[in-house]
Hints:
Layout: H1 2-39
Amino acid sequence: MVSSHYFALNEEASSIKIFFFFEDSSIKMLFTIILRTFIT
Length: 40
């Protein structure tokens, strides 16, 4: 029971990690564009 629960948590964590990786890269691009428009 504990191992299956841990596996579910691990699976969820890996999918969240992948989601945040893509989310982070898109946010970085948007943030860079916003910074450039404010700076210039």
